[in-house]
Amino acid sequence: MEEKVLDNLRNAVIGGKPRLAVQETEQAIRDGYPKEQILNEGLLPAMHEISREFKKDEPDLAHTLSCAKAMKNSLNLLQANLEEETFPSKGLVIIGTCGGDLHDIGKNVVAVMFEGIGAHILDLGVDVSSERFVKNVREHPEVRVVCISCLLTTSFREMERTVQNLRKERKRSGLDFIIMVGGAPVTQEIADKMGADIYTENAAKAAEAALPYL
Ligand code: B12
User: Fold this and answer.
1) Lower CB count within 10 Å: N or C terminus of the chain?
2) Which residues span the domain enclosing 60?
3) Secondary structure element (H or E) that encloses residue 4, with its range
4) pLDDT tens-place string over residues 5-14
5) Probe ligand 1: pick from 61, 113, 151, 198, max atoms within 8 Å of CB?
6) CA of 94 to the centre of ligand 1 (A)
7) Pocket of ligand 1 (CB under 6 A)
8) pLDDT at position 96
9) What's the CA-to-centroid distance between 103 and ligand 1, angstroms?
């Protein structure tokens, strides 16, 4: 009976119901659940479930965005109601679609997922050159994660150049950030070859994988 509110919260997020998710989060807070339990037993398992949804041949993007919104609203509420140390790390994530590529739907989903886990987002938009990524890293030394999205195989070369230049900048400056890549045509093998630190196949997994670094 006690854990039912966390089940309800999980189901509200998985069901893509932002208002219900907020109500369940409010209830869990009123019931005195510790923040970690709301996060670990309510919201993060919902993210796992959403990850599975993305693996389907034809994922329902509208539904996924509703799930992401539900999660984001719940986390905003948690942040507003609980003490600052609830989210001990809220690092900066710089995100953009690589040079030559104008696709931004996937990048935006990734950004929403990161916001959902409490990260600050600097969205550089689309067709972001290697030089712009590096310039923004220099201007924001607090950056923890740099995310590069790529949907065009013709932009792979530019993405590789960006990864390499970010690695050089990291070495030169001693800054402590990780480089993540993704997008439909990107695979683990390609990411490894380019020298990226982390690749994930979808946005929910990206946010999960980045959590320890934020
Ligand atoms: C929508 C779309 C468009 C829209 C883009 C609208 C927009 N605002 O983004 C429009 C119509 C403008 C468009 C244009 C073009 N497109 Co287009 N487009 C697509 C399409 C149908 C869907 C892409 C999409 O949004 N998917 C939904 C999102 C949610 O998925 P996603 O981007 O993969 O993101 C998920 C993951 O990959 C991951 N992810 C994404 N980014 C990142 C980043 C990180 C760090 C991580 C960890 C994870 C991650 O998380 C996301 C959510 O889980 C794809 C087909 C496809 N199946 O991919 C073709 C596709 C990508 N397009 C293609 C092409 C060729 C083009 C054009 C060149 C067409 C033309 N001749 O003009 C132009 C490119 C213009 C340019 N310079 O960019 C080809 C690319 C082929 C190739 N081998 O490179 C595809 C594959 C279609 C095809 N089969 O031919 N396109």
Assistant:
1) N
2) 4-86
3) helix 4-14
4) 999 999 999 9
5) 151
6) 20
7) 54, 61, 100-107, 109-110, 147-149, 151-154, 180-185, 200, 202-203, 206
8) 98
9) 5
Band of pLDDT at residue 1, cut at 50, 70 and 90? very low
Give the distance (Å) from ligand 1 centre to CA of residue 178.
24
21 token code pair: 């998710």
Last residue of a domain, one of 43, 60, 86: 86
| Ligand 1 centroid – CA 160 distance (Å) | 18
CATH number at residue 140: 3.40.50.280
User: At which of 86, 108, 142 does a domain end?
Assistant: 86
Indicate whether 213 pLDDT > 80: yes
Residues 98, 82 within the same domain: no
Question: Are 11 and 71 contained in the same domain?
Answer: yes
DSSP summary character for residue 119: -
Enumerate the β-bridge partners of residue 98.
128
Question: How many folded domains does the chain comprise?
Answer: 2
DSSP secondary structure code for residue 126 in this structure: S
105 CA → ligand 1 middle, Å: 8
- For ligand 1, what atom is nearest to the CA of residue 126? 78
| 99 phi/psi in degrees, rounded to 5 | -50, 135
Q: Do residue 37 and residue 122 come from a single domain?
A: no
What is the atom index within ligand 1 of the atom nearest the CA of 200? 47
**SS3 per-residue string spanning 74-98:** HHHHHHHHCCHHHCCCCCEEEEEEE
Element (H, E) at 97: strand 92-97
Please tell me whether residues 66 and 164 are part of one structural domain: no
